[in-house]
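User: Here's a protein and a ligand (beta-D-mannopyranose). What would the complex look like?
Assistant: Let me lay out the input and then the predicted complex.
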Amino acid sequence: MKNVMKRHEGVVFSPGNVPYDSVLTFNAAVIKRGKEDYAMVFRNDFFEPGTKDLTRTNLGLAFSKNGLQWKVEKEPLFELRTDKIHRAYDPRITVIDGTMYLCFAIDSVYGVQGGIARLSDDFQVDEILTISTPDNRNMALFPEKINGKYVRLERPMPVYGRYGAFDEKFDIWMSESPDMVHWGNAKVVLEADDVEFSNCKIGPGAPPIKTKDGWLVVFHAVDNDPSRGKNGWEEKWTKRYTIGVMLLDLEDPSKIIGVAKEPLMIPETEDELTGGFRNNALFPCATILEEDDTVRIYYSAGDMYVKTATAKLDDIVALCKGELA
Ligand code: BMA
């Protein structure tokens, strides 16, 4: 398949940018609010103070005029820790009718859950509106109501599901809500089995962007190869995360118009292949449609850095429709 993505060379955000405790900065939500006003909410993993246990996570906030160089706020934006909740992570932001909503995953004593919060205009977490039942994560909201309802993509993780215990074949689903609080009418959107370059789980990447041809959605797709051994800081890690892309029907986003046959991006550069916390992992959490119809994807490399790459909208749409080989 034609490579339509152009990587910005090097990383655009790393732990060295952060003025507070930071070991890994990755899985960043980015939105553009004006011509020269990008905002990023990034996942920041750090050591439990006084230890070398990499068990703490908060979300940080940064701003940029060009989407490449970032000015980080002095203090973290948000850390969710209660006696039941260990952390909130992997943010995605969607602006709907001028209001920002933050989706995030939660590790709790009950499992993995998906949360949605409303943000104030100055990026404070106003209110947590909903937290899903376990196990579910990778939530991403559509940027407008569809047929009068809010709609989100999500990725349940049914380990005792149709594939039997502990087989990680997880699919992309969607559900809808009248008020952002009550969610239902769940439907499967894309099945892991229908993605040729994944033999494992897939999950929504970034909030969908609206195009005249349909909703454009990037997703992560995992292929597992048991012969892979040590990878990054982990003793054994056999998965590779690539980035896929699909186009969904504007009126009924449970209908797929097309899925690109091969990954849009695979780990390729040195900082994506080695040296990260978890090598071989690309994880997209944001796409921006620039004024000149360039699609900019923000993705993480190795669960350690934020990177970005661009493509022409027409090229990505053509890949989804099978019109570009
Ligand atoms: C997923 C999540 C992400 C992470 C990704 C790649 O399962 O845990 O937070 O970025 O794996 O390691």
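Summary: Residues 27, 90, 241, 278, 281, 283, 303 surround beta-D-mannopyranose (CB under 6 Å).
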